[in-house]
Amino acid sequence: MKVTDHIKEAKDTLFSFEILPPLKGKSIQSIYDGIDPLMEFQPKFVNVTYHREEFIYKERENGLLEKIAIRKRPGTVGICAAIMNKYNVDAIPHLICGGFSKEDTENALIDLQFLGIDNVLALRGDAYKTEANFRPHPDGHQYAVKLVEQITEMNKGNYMMDDVQLEPTNFCIGTAAYPEKHFEAMNLATDLMHLKQKVDAGAEYIVTQMFFDNKKYFSFVEACRNMGIMVPIIPGLKPLKTLNHISFIPKFFHIDYPIELSSELLKCKDNKAVEKLGIEWGIHQSKELKNAGAPCIHYYTMSNSSSVKAIASEVF
């Protein structure tokens, strides 16, 4: 079932969450262990992230270094199929531009359609850790809007393989947005312009990057509506869990903590204190968003569901 249909049928704010594929070598049970505690809250869909391959360098006999691609996490497509089979819940794979050619993308989408997966989240993806800036596959997409366009064309029955007649796909396309703007955008206005281009290209709903100040989400939604972006905008939340999050999250995700939260974080002496505060703040954010009529609240679990379970127990 499509995300947009779930939202249309809902009488109240929906609950959803996102998981990470396990590191290579772990079994599918590690995925189930993170999902099981959250099923009591009846999620309508579960997002599964995609991590592009990473590289290692091995020294050859002649002293030169050989660059070798490795995959550290199992494939998102297979994980989505396993989740849908076990829980009878919609699984949403992330599709990214980085590391994919257009043909790779088309093949992945054909596989997803075959498996009965109705939803995809179209993202540009991040640069390699060793690169200062994002660089696409030579035959891939530079921007997420082009990925959205390709999926939309496949929904119309237009494939790269002109000589093969295939059925049109029927994907509900989601995309990402940044209430505090993408760090590469010149300003929020240009970021909104790019977001509208993705919606005009076929994106049917939006999931936001994490934020800790609900005022920024409400202002962002209002700005989107003023731009003519009328699709559902799902807020994304992440509970703080460790002392490392205090500095890492603002630095890596380019977001700010509201003063009320930062004042309390400064009092935290250990991970336990941060986790407790993260749950309390998550409950506060969630209740306010739910009361304001958010279509769904999407939680970034990082495959550790304990804090999200504590929050959901008070909200859903």
Written account of the structure:
With 316 residues, this protein is an alpha/beta fold. It has a single domain, classed as TIM Barrel, CATH 3.20.20.220. It is 40% helix and 18% strand. It has eleven helices and ten strands. The chain has helices at 3-9, 29-35, 76-87, 102-114, 144-155, 188-201, 214-226, 243-253, 259-265, 271-291, 306-315; strands at residues 14-19, 45-48, 54-59, 65-70, 90-96, 119-123, 172-177, 205-210, 233-237, 296-300. The strands form two sheets. An eight-stranded parallel beta barrel has the order 1-2-5-6-7-8-9-10, surrounded by six helices. Strands 3-4 form a two-stranded antiparallel sheet. Helix 4 crosses helix 5 and helix 5 packs parallel to helix 6 (188-201). It is globular. The model has no long low-confidence stretch (mean pLDDT 89).
Tell me briefly what this model is:
This protein has 316 residues and is α/β, with parallel strands linked by helices. It has helices spanning 3-9, 29-35, 76-87, 102-114, 144-155, 188-201, 214-226, 243-253, 259-265, 271-291, 306-315; strands spanning 14-19, 45-48, 54-59, 65-70, 90-96, 119-123, 172-177, 205-210, 233-237, 296-300. The longest helix has 21 residues, at 271-291.
Keywords, separated by commas or semicolons:
18% strand, two-stranded antiparallel sheet, 8-stranded parallel beta barrel, alpha/beta, 316 residues, 40% helix
